[in-house]
Amino acid sequence: MRRLVPGLTLSLALAATLLGCGNDDGRETVTLWAMGHEGEVARDVLVEFEAAHPDIRVVVQQVPWSAAHEKLVTSVVGRSTPDVSQLGNTWIAEFAALGALEPLDSRVEASTAVERTDFFPGIWDTNVVQGETYGVPWYVDTRLLFYRTDLLERAGYDSIPSTWAGWKASLAAMKSKLGPDDYPLFFPVNEWPPPVIFGLQNGSTLLRENDTRGAFAERPFRDAFAFFVELFEDGYTPGVANNEIGNLYQEFSRGHVNGFITGPWNLGELRNRLPAEQAGVWSTSPLPGPEPGVPGVSLAGGSSLVLFRNSARKDAAWKLIEYLSLPETQARFYDLSGDLPARASVWESPTFQSDPRLAAFGDQLAHVVSTPKIPEWEQIATVVQEHAELAVRTGADIDSTLSQLDRRVNRILEKRRWLYEHGKLASASHDRAIETLQSIGLRAGTAGGGR
Amino acid sequence: MSRLGYQNGSAAVFLAPALGLLLLFFFLPVVIGVFLSLTDFDVYAIGNPGTARMVGLANYQYVLGDATFWKALRNTLYFVVVGGPLSVLTSLGVALLLSHRALRLQGIFRTIYFAPVVTTLVAVAIVWRYLYHPRYGLIDHVLSHFGISPIDWLGDPNWAMPAIILLAIWKNFGYNMLIFVAGLQSIPTELYEAASIDGAGAWRRFVHVTVPGLRPTFLFVGLTTMIGYFQLFAEPYVMTQGGPLGATRSLVLHMYEQGFRWWRIGEASTLAVLLLLITLVATLVQLGMQRTRKTNEIPRTAGPAPRGDAA
Prior knowledge:
The structure holds two protein chains of two kinds. Chain A has helices spanning 4-20, 36-52, 65-77, 92-97, 105-110, 121-125, 149-154, 164-175, 193-201, 219-233, 248-254, 265-273, 314-325, 327-337, 350-353, 356-365, 377-394, 398-412, 414-421, 428-439; strands at residues 28-35, 56-63, 84-88, 128-129, 132-133, 135-141, 144-148, 207-208, 213-214, 259-262, 282-285, 298-299, 301-307, 340-341, 368-369. Chain A has 20 helices and 15 strands. Chain A has two domains: 21-141 and 301-358, D-Maltodextrin-Binding Protein, domain 2 (3-Layer(aba) Sandwich), CATH 3.40.190.10; 144-298 and 377-439, Periplasmic binding protein-like II (D-Maltodextrin-Binding Protein, domain 2), CATH 3.40.190. By secondary structure, chain A is an alpha+beta fold. Chain B has helices at residues 2-36, 43-47, 58-64, 67-99, 106-118, 121-131, 138-144, 157-185, 189-197, 202-213, 215-230, 234-239, 251-261, 265-297. Chain B is mainly alpha-helical. Chain B starts with a helix and ends in a 14-residue tail after the last helix. Chain B has one domain (26-294): Orthogonal Bundle (MetI-like fold), CATH 1.10.3720.10. Helices cover 73% and strands 0% of the residues of chain B. The longest helix of chain B has 35 residues, at 2-36. In chain B, helix 4 (67-99) runs parallel beside helix 8 (157-185), helix 4 (67-99) packs antiparallel against helix 11 and helix 8 (157-185) packs antiparallel against helix 11 (215-230). Chains A and B meet through helix 3, helix 17 and helix 19 of A and helix 2 of B.
């Protein structure tokens, strides 16, 4: 016991110092959680923020992506949320449903720094759940086509055609130049984005009746799904998962697979991983659309900054969000992290316009839509992937596969239907989705009629 | 009588901390788990507990009618029934080799064979994914010398579970091997000598000395391996994420996804309760098998005659 006492006193003193150090200079301390690489570079852009706001101190906590979701949910349940956090924009609906996020509409309205119209509309829309805005886009990503330019040229094309039919013809031409075990494309069958993207391109809303039932057996998605499955049947992409092909970059370098749909993170990966003499053999292209004049939309991805409802320093925290949204900060953040800026005005600078691979992303970002903004979406996406894999691997009948998919999805959404029928949910999300689709020139709701 | 009561009282005082901890960290969670399995607690309920509903046995009804559950159960049983015995036999075989008198440097071999047990599975998985690769993998390369065309180990729904079993055996056999080595050392060498003098060859010595001598070890290894194999999770989680076509989705992986990916806590709790019941039944069956085997053998192992009750 005698030995214990000094130790105890020491640790108490230490704890007191640690607890006290936040307030010893009278500044307000705002905590920011940032994931992965963003967490590493965020500090560098915050130096200027702290210089401009001598009364605010920002503590950045770096959270690895693999643990981020669980840590965030745990912090919500345990009421130990930070003031501000980076949040993958597909997670916003979930945390809004948890009641963890502060609605930002009035703050955005009053702000001069966060200029709503300067953000890519499809990206902004991912932050709006049931009619309320819960996040401000920090950086964006979307998926488009990465391809081998040398193979495309050998097949007699100088760019990726802009319609499904034209694209398919180019795939056939490329396939004819390849051996039986090599492919012009690679869509891993364990990933959900390709079939979902084609569905969205064809005007499917994926879900119906205020996101309480699946709309996968309906015409727009059904036709897109058939197009997707044909790409496998015609031998343009191997029907395997991404853990079955070893190293994707090696396969791409060796010409075993010659194209894939993926995001901006692979710009850097390909630059680093391909041998120097192959630096010029690949490029990126916006996705083809189903018909002439209909842009091929892609997914609105990226991360937003959110303010937690439990925060005791919302005004200071909002200043931080405003600062990170400024075009100058966004440009600087791109230099540090390589993350694509969320504001369209930043994209006008030569940095983005002079690099065609990057410019393709700018073009694609004008045509992005969000997936249904409900907490169940990620689970639904996996079920979509499972059924796509089933159709590809076993050649199962498309219509019965999609009816089965709708039944699975309807079961997942049972709780949501109940909440909706008992007036525990507002009904704005569906109309919003249609509005967004229309705002980017897509014939939502009418799709399928002409096909 | 009162003395007994006093003894019980002081025993209770000494046992209280342990019992309290057990109650708090074992029984209470089980009770809460059973309770949650009767609700539809989900992501909406985390935000607003008012939206949770008592649903009675609806979760059980749904899970028992869900093809994904039965598939996961089939996969798990496949893993337990095929992988369990193979794993135990591998451990036993290696333990026998290691205990052979002719073997030098036993310590080094023991360490080598134990190494996979303490290696991080994630690191191991990366290496094994390459071993299983149909184009570059070592395994298919070796098989091709015997005229066997490449097998898509992790991509073919028929081969994915055997691939997981192979990995699991390689990863885990070292642990049981050590227990068998200890078990072998506890068999008195006199028995072997006596058997040799009676003219028993290596095989008969194994069947009539080693196997009966290892019986308690078998019971322990068999039970822990079976219970452990029912908990199959990490291997498919890092190797296949349950694919291809759900061929390697185990019950625990299914439960994890329902609970911590989709926050369907009610359904995940239902799965946990069902897995508990299944494991319990399987354990009782195995214990029963061991007991009948023992009863059958009583006439043969005519041990020392039971001493009469002297008192």
